[in-house]
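Subject: for your reference before the review

Hello V.,

The reviewers asked for a structural picture of the protein, and I figured it would be easier to keep everything in one thread rather than splitting it across files. Below is the amino acid sequence we used in the manuscript, unchanged from the supplementary table.
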Amino acid sequence: MLSARDRRDRPPEEGVAAELQGFAVDKNFLTSLKGILLETELALTFIIFICFTASISAYMAAALLEFFITLAFLFLYATQYYQRFNRLNWPCLDFLRCVSAIIIFLVVSFAAVTSRDGAAIAAFVFGIILVSVFAYDAFKIYRTEIAPGASQGDRQ
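And here is what came back from the structure prediction:
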């Protein structure tokens, strides 16, 4: 029987299992369109979190939650770790993440602008920009991942 130390010191197996071991970051993904979109969403969500923290702390939880969700998706896609969870429909989850973020940031941004504080107005502006980035990401996901699968199912 092999101990944990023996398994760790062995070279990885060939094939697909070797590709899934560890958390190596795929640099090609980070420079792709999807990677840049996720990085932009992450940066803008963090900026909005800072703006809400400076002005209206009641709305900062929504920005923080979306920040962590986007960070999790960026981590899973960049490390190719999502391939271990093959029973989940990742394009659909990503699409729903974008749609929920659009709804949350539209509501929170318009609610924050009513306070007339400088940081809240900045959060509103960045929120509208972030909503457009999430909408573009949802559009790209739908066009490349969801719509071709639906049209192929109709033809069969």
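For the response letter, the relevant points are probably these. The first helix runs from residue 4 to 9. The chain has one domain: 27-147.

Happy to draft the paragraph if you're swamped.

O.
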